[in-house]
Amino acid sequence: MASYEEVGIGDAVLLDEISTRAFVDNLRVRFNGGKIYTYIGEVCVSVNPYRTINLYGKEYVTQYKGREIFERPPHVFALADAAYKAMKRRGQDTCIVISGESGSGKTEASKIIMRYIAAVTNVAGQQEIERVKNVLLQSNAILEAFGNAKTNRNDNSSRFGKYMDINFDFKGDPIGGHVQNYLLEKSRVVLQQPGERNFHSFYQVLFGATDSDLSKLKLKRDVNAYHYIRQGGTPRVDSIADKVDYKACQAAFKTLGFSPEQTDAIWRIVSAILHLGNIEFTSGGDETQIKNPKEVSNIAELLRVSPDQVTKALCHRVIAARGEVMEKRHTESEASYGRDAFAKAIYERLFSSIVEGVNNAIEVRFEGAEAKYKYNTVIGVLDIYGFEIFDRNSFEQFCINYCNEKLQQLFIELVLKQEQEEYRREGIAWQTIEYFNNQIICDLVEQSHKGIIAITDEACLNVGRVTDEMLLEAMEGKLKGHKHFTTRKLSPMDKELKHVEEFRVKHYAGDVVYSIKGFLEKNKDTLFQDFKRLMYSSSDPVISSMWPEGAQDITMTTKRPLTAGTLFKNSMIALVKNLACKEPYYIRCIKPNDQKSPVIFDEERVTHQVNYLGLVENLRVRRAGFAYRQSYDRFLRRYKMISQYTWPNFHGGTDREGTKILVEEQGFSNDVKYGNTKIFVRSPQTLFALEQARAKLIPGIVIFLQKMWRGALCRMRYRRMCAALTIMRHYRLYKMRSYMLELHRVFRNVRQMQDYGKHVRWPAPPLVLRSMVSDFQSIHNRWRAHMILSNVPKSDWPQLRIKVIAGDVLMGKRADWGVRETWEGNYLASTRENPDSSAFQSAVKNMRNKDGFREVLFSSLVRKINRNDKMSERAILVTDRQIYKLHSKTFKPLRSPIPILEVSGISVSPGQDQLVIIHLRGGNDFVVSLMSQSNANRVGELTGLLLRQYQLLNRADLRVVVAGTLQCMLGNKSRMITVEETNVGTFPAFRKGTKRGELVYSWPESLNKALPPPPQTSLHRQAPNPPSRPPPGANGYGNGNDHGYGNGHIKGGSGYHNVDRNSNGNGHVYANTGRY
Ligand SMILES: Nc1ncnc2c1ncn2[C@@H]1O[C@H](COP(=O)(O)OP(=O)(O)O)[C@@H](O)[C@H]1O
Ligand SMILES: [Mg+2]
Predict the structure, then answer these.
(1) pLDDT tens, 456-465?
(2) Residues 407 and 99: beta-carbon distance below 8 Å
(3) Would you say 655 and 633 are in contact if contact means Cβ atoms under 8 Å apart?
(4) What pTM did the predictor assign?
(5) Which of 284-293, 861-870, 1001-1010 shows the lowest mean pLDDT across its residues?
(6) Is 154 in the active site?
(7) Alpha carbon of 994 to those of 27, 870, 917, 991, 997: distances in Å?
(8) Nearest-CA neighbor of 158 among 146, 176, 170, 174?
(9) Distance 51 CA to ligand 2 centre (A)
């Protein structure tokens, strides 16, 4: 518990002695010490301090927010929070019933509660909720302006009953509300007691409106100019700032969404009533007439009706009898009565329509609100007029006091009777406490046939003249002997009561003498039809809509309306029913003195209130009773997590046993009693400890639930993912399968195809296979290569490889590069080419021994040109490492060999000639024309060989130039060699050109061969000829055989598979017909 400076005893339950004296003493001590709130358990007793105390600031709000009642010093905040918590925690509708006599602080308390609720809600700052809160708070300014007045007991006395529901959403934020008003004391509009005022609104408009507005309303800023507001003789009250309140009221109208037309009409109606009050009648001659017709025109203008109609309605009555319509002129007194009834009725209607307007503004009005706020709960705040005793008490006081009887009855029912009955029912040992049950008084007022209201209604129903005196007689007849009702006739000794005028009711809160005068009229509450029609005829739609029944035809007989008494009784019964189904919280207000003094504690007055409020009985019941009770199942459900035996579920027996085990484990056995169906907890501290233990565990449980739910969500998501993957996998398989089938279809005859399917267009692959297709294609290509190569004898593969390399650089650039010929390489070793081949062989042997190469790749006789432009015959020998220049007869090397790595490029011409320039790094290129016995074309062969060998040795490509004019270096000089074909001579020759430094290589046309057409034309058309298998033992390139490669199996000419690289250079091998 929070420690705080205690004055007296905060919770009267803890008093040493339980007596009215001790209780009042404690209140006094606390009042004098500035402590105005005291608890009786959960009932808050509030003593009006009549001064501003700093008790309601932000710091106090934070102190009480979310706290249990007994944790902090007594305060209405604590009660408001308890009601709020109950609502939020348990989804329970709650209500806060504020009772006490007039001026005891009920309305203040209700405003404090509203402000507290506004302060603790909407932490998220939602705009709509902020608006609702603002509207709820500001609606007070309007309701008080029109429904409150200064009385002798209270400067700001509520002259109507108010029950306000605040609706909350599931988060506990206010989303709207509803105001129910009860019986406005409308007689005040035309009559005030000395020292009192009319409703604030009249004074607000007089003091608050601007000059120009006043003149529009035809008003003077002078209270004494108006009969209806000057009777009390107290136009101004220190505690009331009419001007400021007027502004606040106007602002509130705006906030609540009243249109300017509405507000304008409202103030015009208020002004019209003031003018109406000044209307006087004369009966010059027989005719009742209006003395001051100017006022009539004011009224007509303000109400937007015709002046004639106003005059007519005030002075006449239209009566319909037996289908005939007659006009009857009022007597002077009838006219005065009619005027006042009219004024009261207009004001009452106005007030109701303002309440309606307020409700329109605060109604829960989200779209689909009902569904969305299915879980909404309400807190009702009841601030109703308190019990009052005036010098003269009339029908209004009777109603008001009856209302307080009803509320007291509810309190007794709930707090005293029900509580005790419950203990009995639950079999808890209990000593019954006596209390006064006021049911008998409620019955006195409301019973059918025998109740005061019923008797009055009956009198009103009587045709013919029934007077108030006759009504009193009727009451005397029916209520004779009732303990709580008496008159002078019934108790002749009672000198206090006036004969045939007064009756006394012994209320729970004290005896009240009522004057019967006006009871009948006020109960009947007649308003001549003429006024209703007049108002309905208004050209101002705001006004005319307030009086819909004015539309009725005069001849229509209307059902007799319910009397004021019965209406009030019904509304009270409905109110009590509404409150009874909510969890009630009570604030009992006490007035410390009648002087509105902050320092006087009038013991007698307070004792009286304490007595009639039944506070000491309340205390007794409370003290003997229990702070909290709950059915076993709900108790267990709420607290099961704090015991290992009951969490997560109790399986060891009934809920009662579970509860017992839980309570014992927590060590609270001495503070509880076990009833038949409920557990009773004596002290709030125990409950608090249970709540705290629970609150400590809740976050863990929440996290646990979140964890489980997250897990469940993830598993669900995982399963969905797996399903999706399965579907995807199957779909992918299906797509692949269909693709493969499609491939299968288009490539079905691939073996029979001339190009083994090279021309076949691949069907567009599905997305999943897109990356695979290039693999398929390379597989296909490899297969095609295999198919093509399988037609070529293995022994031909080495020369094939060279041909491919040569073709890569020469095909399409050079007319003939010898592809159709058999490339043997080492030509000088063959006697066909070289009759002295044995000399060559032995020379090679020597060189090999000396220079250590492994094999001979190429040898040929050449015609060479040197740096002095001299042409000579030589032999060339290419080994796996070097290039030798040999003597053409002896085959001895003429100089040391040139390493192949020294080669920097090769140049050849596009023609059929045999010129080859082997560029060397040294600045002295090797420029030769290849010679052969058979006029064979060996340029391609030598080029391919060098390229390949260079690639093997250096992992790089040699540059090959094919051009008609070629550049070369001879003797460190750059020379140009032009290739020309001549029709003279029989062998190729070099000579000097015409230009300086130019060389010409001339090639006799006669050596040219006829060439086949380009290969593309015949491609794909012709099935390949069956390959001729090579004889076994065929050799190839690179087999270490000095005889060169191949044994002539690859022959030029048709009928043979030729292998080439296709011209787009993508490295794929294709078969062609070999026709070129
Ligand atoms: N808690 C309070 N703090 C200060 N003044 C108060 C308080 N309660 C009531 N009063 C004073 O008492 C007057 C009457 O209170 P009110 O709530 O209007 O009484 P009721 O509604 O019971 O007739 C208020 O105008 C105010 O001056
Ligand atoms: Mg009030």
Answers:
(1) 999 888 767 7
(2) yes
(3) yes
(4) 0.62
(5) 284-293
(6) yes
(7) 141, 16, 21, 10, 8
(8) 146
(9) 16
